[in-house]
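Supplementary Text 2. Reproducibility record for the structural model of the 287-residue chain.

All settings were left at their defaults, and a single model was retained for analysis rather than an ensemble. We include the record here because the model underlies the residue-level annotations in Supplementary Table 4.
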Amino acid sequence: MMLNAIMKLHRFDDTNLFYQKTKDYLLKDEVLHNLQLGIMNRLMNNPDRFKNKPYLAVIEHDGNIIAVAMMTIPHNLLLSKIKELAAIDVIINDLRRDNKSLTNINAPVIEAQAFAEKWCLFTGKSYQLKEKLRIYKLEKVELFLQAEGNFRLATIKDKELLKNWHDAFCLEALGCIESDSETWVEARLKQGITYFWENEIPVSLASSGRFTPNGGGINTVYTPPEHRKQGYAGACVAALSQTLLDKGYKFCFLFTDLSNQTSNKIYQQIGYKSVADWNNYSFSTSS
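Retained model, structure tokens:
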């Protein structure tokens, strides 16, 4: 416990101050920390989108940052790369001091596993692996996959279709609908960051929406079952990746579910390179 005694945890109420404090640490591994950087970008530019006050914490050892912890979605903790795993005890003590409950931990593999084990040791809860994820980075589109149709920006005329596809994507990928489709669609239409691959009718969807100082993220890639295995998703993601690069981003990034071998293979064909693996663990709701 002597090590913990010289570690200090600082909580922040102001996201701008939190960003200034953590940016150098996070930007050393910008793609690895794209979730943290992207969420902070949203918090600073669109604070009204978040209904709950975020948990923002920095852990320092002898004045140097060794870990960053965030929580915006209720009870879902996000951890950075941690230089000293003993910092996890400091984070857990702080969360328990405020009686904060957790449903999930999302972090790089080592950090996620270590936190899950210690959280359950302290709380008596159990945990299970919810998702095994991989972060990919692309600096150049190496292959534009061939598919019938064309790439286009989604417009207000597509609003109802986007809402339906958003919910279908959430149910398939997450098992539940975690965000309101109306809010999600309105934000993306306003920003002009969601696109279709269209073959007479829309057949696939890809959206950007999480940005770092140098990179553009791709998420919510969805093709309805009846349009799959036609190359639409790969063509849509390749076209969106090039669109982001053309806008001046130095690279693109995305998360994949490692259980989906097809999407992992397609993204690599396009030019995405593996950066790191992440794990998402869920906790039991009772001890």
